[in-house]
Design brief:
Number of strands: 38
Mean pLDDT: 89
Distance between the termini: 65 Å
Largest sheet: 7 strands, mixed
Low-confidence stretches: none
Shape: globular
Helix content: 25-40%
Radius of gyration: 35 Å
Strand content: 15-25%
Structural class: alpha+beta
RNA sequence: GCGCCUGUGGCGAAAUUGGUAGACGCGCCAGACUUAGGAUCUGGUGUUGAGAGACGUGUAGGUUCGAGUCCUAUCAGGCGCACCA
């Protein structure tokens, strides 16, 4: 019978379920280890062979840590709310709750077959009210907090209110939407609605009328990370800029902490770099410019304060409020025409079209240093959302300003010695400054001539600060996250509108459950589907949801109609896994103190600027509140590579039903066609299967080479349309889950993207059969003995122990699998069937191939699970050689070989080499001067 | 444009971190056992050469007794950010 993997795997999967082998409880006696995968959004397509890669990798790690004696948390759940789940439901014409449930069941079935050690008792789903209770709770907390820049943490909004009522805004240094100057008297004179509206300026979760990414086809607004190249990440639909009132999260308040935190965590440099780019810290200067013949003053931001003498025009973003104020009567028509034109363009059109456009406002600004008059223009190359939405333009040293100046014939004034600006601007931040105005500008005492750019920037900053012309400022590219979606399938906001004032429902009334609606489809006009919900008003007396027909203006108010975006539920889920059934708190203090944060997080890079920013932000906020004990949620992060598809092609001769084999195809006029990879083996087509595959190929003819039809191949995305999707279920059925697990790891480094190629899988399968063959002979007789192991056998074993113990923590799984194969090859050629050796190998293999390991563990006479075994320690003694061969080489070429005792010292070796008759102290007739000894390998000589 | 990463046989990839390439697996070749085999087992397999040997880690230099590994330049591919002032 041999190795019957199907039977073995089903048996053990059942036992693990029945015995709850992988259930984990807090245990202060044991050290914890928290392994986490990015939980999946359960798509309708089910798993393909690429999806489990990260799960297998982390499962191996989790099992390894458990064998080493750690208390390992390795949970799994589903990111079930959000756009993808809802889009799928819409496409299939079903309710998202139904499709989500179906998809989850399908996922679970597929996952179970692969033999993961997840503690399913801790499963969470983001669309489960018990779960989103705490998403809503966190939102209320954010609503009730502001970010204090002095303590660098979130504080209760009540503290801010108290300050405002006593001191006004004078002593407030807090993250805000707009700088506000208000006295205590003014604050106290405001009515409640006015006060509440002003407080939005500081809340971490706040309502704001702002330019947003509006996607008409999806019928919702999107966050910046959900828009790629001007189209929606999901679906690829056009996105336009639109001013809308939306809930936002003040992520920008945490920009600096998000940046600093990167130094404390163990992530790849490239991912940290991506986040640094996204946060986009830029240090510069803000300067005030006055408008000639007016009291209007405005602020610009620049990183090149040193170029202030080269400013020949100013530019405002079209959306800037200053445009209207600065436009003169003569320019009014031209400016309005320009604004009209820019407004109509989508984000994408603006990105593609880089032609220089702009219009003069008619106003002049005064250079605060020189007193010069500078024309103020409007152009869409200046962005409203960054800096102050206004710039000083220095065409000599900024390529965009240069293009603009050339186009409109504005002066270009170089400031750096020897730079040539006749053809292009000199953007580099290097060189020696020149052309500083001297006698002509008596007002200005700043002279930069002779300084380097760096010195000049510093000098100008100092001058500007000292003379009250501006201030040093740090800007971030990171924007606040737009948090509302005009969609159905998401967490409802726990907010009602009491006379227009957004008010959180009491925390003890959470969760606020998603209501049933008749029509959940999104609309192009942006009317949220929750508008159709009948039971969608808040009764402040009975503290419950009620029919919206009951709305009155005293006790029953309308509830918020928007829902939260996909990232809301995925931002703090790792905390919930610690204590998933707690209905008193997101996570209990005890559980949080025990599990702390995620030690190893495994997932794809595609979340670099979305989920991985949001959850760091969310966790930092909870950290400020004292809810989370660690400021960074994910200590170590490993990005598994994407598994691509490996497509196969057949070549049909044009206008025929004849197919020609790959290497003969060049002689014909052929059309390459994708063919299902499941009917191709080692690029050889199964002709009968091909004829049966599709009716039109039933009578296909073939031109063969060596009696075979060879297919072409290419690496492409794994997708149904390319017929290159490989389903893990098929592999499990044919080879078993253990083989699948081994092979996925053997394919190459986990972090690397690589194509899936089922061809190599036999090697891994053979290895398991070989291992099985060490326990049973051909007639299924148990052949393991209690004899003592030989030195050679022990050496082979300990080599493997050392390799696995060192390579698993380094995530070097492909070489570990190789090491298993080498070891088993060695032992089987030694005809080793000693229990002492074999049962150790079974433990070592358990993380990779848990089913066969359990089976063999039981067969060798153990009654407990192999999961509870102890990871073997290696003994260096067994690894030592008696003698070591050294190659004596000169100039990199081997001359002769000498053998030394393993414990020979360098001095011994050197003495022997110098005295050896082969060398006779001479090489090529010259005496040896020096001997360089490389441990265990080579002796290099110098003559 | 700025930043990050990667280039090794027919293929996936190793290389004790500067130690004398290509481990392991696939594929291919030969042999054994088989009525048969897309099964199993054994051996071979970087290129070139009859041969000892010579040449080989994208390309060109450099450092070193010694370079896939370090330095400089360059080419190719991938990723991130991008009218961010």
């Amino acid at each position: 019978m041999g190795y019957n993997f199907n039977e073995i795997e089903q048996k053990w999967q059942q036992r693990w379920r029945d015995n709850k082998t992988y259930r984990v409880v807090e245990n202060s006696e044991k050290e914890k280890f928290y392994v986490l995968n990015m939980f999946p959004y359960p798509s309708g397509a089910g798993l393909h062979v690429g999806h489990p890669l990260g799960y297998i990798a982390s499962d191996i790690f989790a099992r390894f840590k458990r064998l080493q004696g750690y208390n390992v948390l390795n949970p799994m759940g589903y990111d079930a709310y959000g756009l993808p789940a809802e889009q799928y439901a819409i496409q299939t014409g079903q309710h998202p709750a139904i499709t989500t449930e179906q998809n989850i069941n399908r996922y679970r079935e597929q996952l179970d077959k692969i033999g993961f050690c997840f503690d399913w008792d801790r499963e969470i789903r983001t669309c489960d009210p018990e779960y989103y209770h705490w998403t809503q709770w966190a939102f209320i907390k954010m609503f009730n907090h502001y970010y204090d820049n002095t303590t660098k943490s979130s504080r209760p909004i009540s503290e801010l209110v108290e300050k405002l009522s006593k001191e006004g805004s004078a002593n407030i240094d807090a993250a805000c939407t707009k700088e506000v100057n208000i006295s205590a008297a003014e604050w106290n004179a405001m009515n409640e609605k006015e006060q509440q509206e002003l407080l939005m300026n500081w809340r971490i979760a706040f309502l704001n009328e702002t330019m947003v990414n509006w996607c008409p086809q999806l019928g919702t607004v999107l966050a910046n990370d959900e828009v790629v190249d001007g189209v929606s990440e999901r679906g690829g639909f056009p996105v336009v800029q639109k001013k809308m009132k939306q809930w936002c999260l003040r992520v920008s308040a945490y920009a600096q902490r998000l940046l600093d935190g990167l130094d404390k965590i163990d992530w790849t440099d490239s991912l940290k770099e991506t986040q640094r780019n996204w946060i986009g810290r830029s240090e510069g200067t803000e300067m005030q410019f006055r408008i000639k013949d007016s009291d209007i003053e405005f602020t610009i931001f620049t990183t090149r304060a040193d170029t202030v003498f080269g400013v020949t025009f100013m530019v405002l973003a079209p959306e800037s409020e200053l445009v209207a104020q600065l436009t003169t009567a003569e320019q009014k028509e031209a400016v309005e025409a320009y604004l009209d034109r820019t407004k109509k363009r989508t984000e994408r059109e603006r990105m593609i079209d880089r032609n220089v456009t702009g219009v003069f406002t008619g106003s002049y600004a005064i250079n605060p240093l020189t007193g010069e008059n500078i024309p103020v223009w409007v152009s869409d190359y200046v962005l409203a959302g960054y800096g102050t939405g206004a710039i000083m333009a220095v065409p000599a040293h900024d390529s965009r300003d240069y293009a603009f100046a050339k186009h409109f014939g504005i002066e270009i004034r170089p400031l750096i010695e020897g730079c040539d600006v006749s053809e292009e601007s000199f953007d580099a931040k290097e060189g020696i400054m020149t052309n500083s105005p001297t006698a002509a500008f008596a007002a200005c005492k700043l002279h930069l001539n002779g300084l380097t750019v760096k010195e000049a920037i510093a000098a100008t900053k100092k001058y500007v600060t000292d003379n009250n012309l501006g201030r040093v400022k740090v800007n971030y590219r990171l924007r606040d996250a737009i948090f509302s979606r005009q969609r159905y399938w998401g967490e409802p906001f726990p907010i009602y509108y009491k006379n227009g004032i957004p008010t959180p429902i009491p925390e003890e009334c959470l969760p606020l459950e998603l209501p049933e609606v008749e029509k959940f489809l999104p609309t192009e006009s942006g009317e949220p589907p929750l508008g159709h919900a009948k039971m969608w008003a808040w009764d402040c007396v009975n503290n419950c949801v009620t029919n919206k027909e009951n709305i009155n203006n005293e006790t029953i108010f309308p509830l918020e109609l928007n829902t939260m975006p996909g990232f809301a539920g995925s931002s703090a889920y790792y905390l919930r896994y610690m204590d998933p059934r707690n209905n008193k708190a997101l996570v209990s203090k005890e559980a949080d103190n025990y599990w702390q944060n995620v030690d190893l997080y495994v997932g794809g890079t595609e979340h670099a600027t979305g989920h991985l920013i949001y959850s760091r932000f969310w966790n930092m906020f909870l950290f400020d509140l004292g809810v989370s004990v660690k400021e960074e949620p994910f200590q170590k992060l490993v990005n598994q590579g994407m598994i691509q598809g490996r497509s196969n092609f057949v070549y049909r001769i044009k206008d025929t039903n004849t197919f020609v084999s790959l290497n003969l195809a060049k002689d014909y006029d052929v059309t390459p066609l994708h063919v299902d990879v499941n009917i191709v083996s080692n690029d050889v087509l199964d002709i009968d299967a091909f004829r049966a595959w599709r009716p039109e190929y039933a009578d296909a003819e073939f031109i063969l080479e060596n009696d075979k039809y060879i297919c072409g191949w290419a690496v492409e995305k794994m997708s149904k349309s390319m017929f290159n999707v490989v389903n893990p279920d098929t592999i499990v059925e044919k080879y078993g889950a253990d083989t699948l697990r081994l092979y996925e790891m053997f394919l190459g480094p986990v972090e690397q993207s690589k194509p899936w190629d089922t061809n190599g899988i036999d090697g891994c399968h053979r290895f398991l059969r070989k291992l099985w063959g060490m326990f049973f002979d051909k007639n299924d007789n148990y052949i393991v003995t209690d004899e003592a192991a030989t030195k050679e056998e022990l050496k082979s074993l300990h080599k493997l122990i050392k390799k696995t113990t060192e390579d698993i923590p380094a995530f070097s799984y492909n070489t570990t699998v190789s090491a298993f194969m080498i070891c088993v090859n060695e032992l089987s050629s030694l005809k080793c069937n000693k229990k002492e050796i074999l049962e150790k190998i079974v433990i070592l293999l358990a993380p990779f191939a848990p089913h066969i390991s359990e089976e063999l563990w039981e067969i060798t006479g153990h009654t407990t699970s192999v999961c509870d075994a102890e990871w073997p320690a290696f003994n260096e003694e067994f690894l030592k050689e008696d003698t070591i061969k050294y190659t004596i080489s000169f100039n990199g070429k081997a001359r002769f070989t000498l053998e030394f005792a393993a414990d020979a010292t360098n001095a011994d070796i050197e003495a022997t080499v110098l005295a050896d008759e082969n060398s006779q102290r001479y090489i090529d007739g010259k005496p040896i001067k020096k001997v360089i000894i490389v441990p265990k390998k080579i002796v290099n000589v110098v003559i």
